[in-house]
Design a protein that fits this description.
With 211 residues, the protein is an alpha+beta fold. It has helices at 28-41, 92-104, and strands spanning 10-14, 17-20, 58-62, 66-70, 73-77, 114-120, 126-129, 141-147, 150-154, 164-168, 173-176, 185-187, 202-208. The structure holds succinic acid and fe (ii) ion.
């Protein structure tokens, strides 16, 4: 998994949190193919927040559970609300990458049951938030960047903590768990660009143990 292209410069961010630079670079083409298949089965869509605002990030899911937002709130559910059908299965390449990245970050045996697929177009941002809709916070979050680079905002356990700005490139993986499981995080507005595999977009895969 960590072949020749993995430069091995793990960057600790906080207790339980690490940026694994290039960790997914070698498998990225397979991840992109698998993401395209997921999107073909469950299209990207702009969900609505409980407050009625359309989200800028387009989202879909794969795996037994998918994260959804609508006027009733945020939650995980087994069916895609657009089709009523189960979300597409978690691709094997996704499962393996998530397991390996979590293990490298100090969280062996990570078995995600949810993968949120986020698509950012230029100008799209994701405001600071915590991932707290999961049933227990014992498992880490594994977040994989594909396509255009982004500035990841990595904050602290309080919303008031000034976030660090981390440049994330195609194939970078961030893992946060343990004492960092509830850190605030977000993404700065995506700069325009043209990525060889993905064109004018960034795809982020976020793996979680939700149920
Ligand atoms: C998320 O917090 O769900 C996504 C983070 C990212 O796109 O890097
Ligand atoms: Fe998040």
């Amino acid at each position: 998994m960590t072949g020749d292209l993995f430069d091995g410069t793990d960057q600790p961010l906080a207790p339980g949190a690490v940026l694994l630079r290039g960790f997914a670079r070698e498998v990225a083409p397979a991840l992109v193919d698998a993401a395209r298949a997921v999107i073909a089965g469950a299209p990207l869509r702009h969900m609505v927040t409980p407050g009625g605002l359309e989200m800028g990030v387009a989202m879909t899911n794969c795996g037994p559970l998918g994260w959804v937002s609508d006027r009733r709130g945020y939650r995980y559910q087994a069916a895609d609300p657009l089709s009523g059908a189960p979300w597409p299965a978690l691709p094997e390449a996704f499962r393996t990458l998530a397991l390996d990245a979590a293990a490298r970050a100090g969280f062996p045996g990570f078995v995600p049951d949810a993968c949120l697929v986020n698509r950012y177009a230029p100008g799209t941002r994701l405001s600071l938030h915590q991932d707290r809709d999961e049933a227990d916070f014992g498992a880490p979050i594994v977040s994989v960047s594909l396509g255009l680079p982004a500035v990841f905002l990595f904050g602290g356990l309080s919303r008031a903590d000034r976030p660090r700005r981390l440049a994330l490139a195609h194939g970078d993986v961030v893992v946060w768990g343990g004492p960092s499981r509830l850190v605030y995080h977000g993404v700065a507005p995506l700069a325009a660009g043209d990525h060889p595999l993905l064109g004018a977009q960034r795809i982020n895969l976020t793996f979680r143990k939700a149920g």
